[in-house]
Every structure is written in C-alpha cells, then in structure tokens.
Hints:
Largest sheet: 3 strands, antiparallel
Helix content: 25-40%
Strand content: 15-25%
Strand order of the largest sheet: 1-2-3
Distance between the termini: 52 Å
Number of helices: 6
Number of strands: 5
Shape: globular
Radius of gyration: 18 Å
Order of helices and strands: HHEEEHHEHHE
Amino acid sequence: MFNKTVIYQTNLERKNPLDIYCFYLGELLNSSPFSSPFRSDSSPSCRLDWYSGKLRYVDFGGTYINIDVIKFLKLVYQCDNYLQLAYEELFLDIDHSDKRVITKYNASSNPITTSSSHNIEIIVERRNWEVYDKDFWKIPTDYLEYHNVLPINRVAYIKWI
Length: 161
C-alpha cells in the first residue's frame, strides 16, 4: 500500500514554489513587500525571499515567520489534510477556497501586489558542463539534466510595463 501523503508532498515539492505562492497570494513582483494575508496588516511586512536555497514566505510583523512552501500550505489550510487539499487545488483544479484561512486581500480590502498589466521576461543563458560543476554536484550530469538542473552563465529579467 502506498502513502498518499508522501505522493502529495513529493508532487508539491516538485512544483515551482513561486507558482504555489502566487496561486494563494496573487502575482508578486520583484519580491516587493506585501500585506499579510493571515492577519490585519496595514503596513506591508511580508515578502518572499531565498534562504538556504529555498524560496520562503517571510513575515516580519507580529510573530516572525520564515517558512518554506510546504509549511506555508499548512498555514493556509490549518488542518491535517492540508497536503491533499493543496494537491487537489493545484493539480486537479478542485476548488477548496472555502477551506482556506488565507485571503488574497488584507483587512483593508486592498489587493496584495498584483500584476495584471505587468509582464516580466526572464532570459537565461546556459553553458556547457565544466569539471568544477561536476565536482560541486558530485552526481552524474545526466541525472541533473533529467531534473532540469543545468549550468548557466547569467540570468537577466526585463520588466515590460
């Protein structure tokens, strides 16, 4: 017998964390501060930031919170089957918005930073594998390529207004 919880968590961890955060928070730009969707917050005190190689939800107001996307989902639903609910919403398009304790609007009913009129183009310049890349990862490059881990020269983004 297989454990469904492990399947839910594994699939959620494989999904781009920014896509998950944006699904629940609205589209966020340039990691700008935004108001907390979990409490009254008149001064934006939350942001998404990279810590230890993971994109994390950070809330500096009230009680300091610094959590990864899986713990964020637990905070969104605040129930034991939060992984199943998130999986069903993100992968199966089953609406569980009535079970969330999060809202895309703060207490003053102002939407969190959204970008219906903004487009961002990300440009990535890839390069060939070097010896130091292989030494760093210490695993076969074909395994890395299978999981879309590729060496890059540079990254740039263009914000179209």
